[in-house]
Amino acid sequence: MNHQPYILVLFYSREGATAAMAKQVARGVECVAGIEARLRTVPALSTQGDDEDTMTLHATQDDLRGCAGLVLGSPTRFGNMAAPMKQFLDDSSALWLQGALIDRPAGVFTSTSSLHGGQESTLLSMMLPLMHHGMVMVGVPYAVPELRATEAGGTPYGASHWSTETGDRPLDDNEAAICRALGRRVAEWALRGPVV
Description:
The chain has helices spanning 17-30, 61-66, 83-90, 93-98, 119-132, 145-149, 173-192, and strands at residues 6-11, 36-41, 69-77, 80-81, 105-112, 136-137, 159-162. By secondary structure, the chain is α/β, with parallel strands linked by helices. The chain is built from seven helices and seven strands, in the order E-H-E-H-E-E-H-H-E-H-E-H-E-H. Strand 1, helix 1 and strand 2 (36-41) form a beta-alpha-beta unit. Strands 1, 2, 3, 4, 5, 6 and 7 form a seven-stranded mixed β-sheet that branches.
């Protein structure tokens, strides 16, 4: 039986950009000794127009309950998280009632097709339910050099990516590095334990 703590990298991806970010976040987590990444997605609410990632397992509330930390990713939908991610979080009220996630670190990431399409408001929208759970938010400080160099995605609130309206722009080196930095920071905070 494996008892190694894990960071839950939980995402929803429709076109693949957010999934690519999740893989970079997981790489960042895996750079930290003594903790592993558990990559999970949430199911689409409908099959119309979705190119769902069928290679990644769907998350359960038990995945969320057992995590040492969480990194949550969603595409931007009118400046907010996508409905499938909101649905998964809405279903976590039993964990909230138990205080199961209090003091665990969490970070957020997003991708969007338009350069000024609400990346930061989407990141903030994902933080709100996590703060209600009592989680401790971990951002990306400007000490991460790629945050100062990026010309597309990347914010202190969390990692972001601009995929263009046609969705054909892959993560650039700066965006990928910011994703890895976010995963690494959440993993490091998880191993520190609660701040008292």
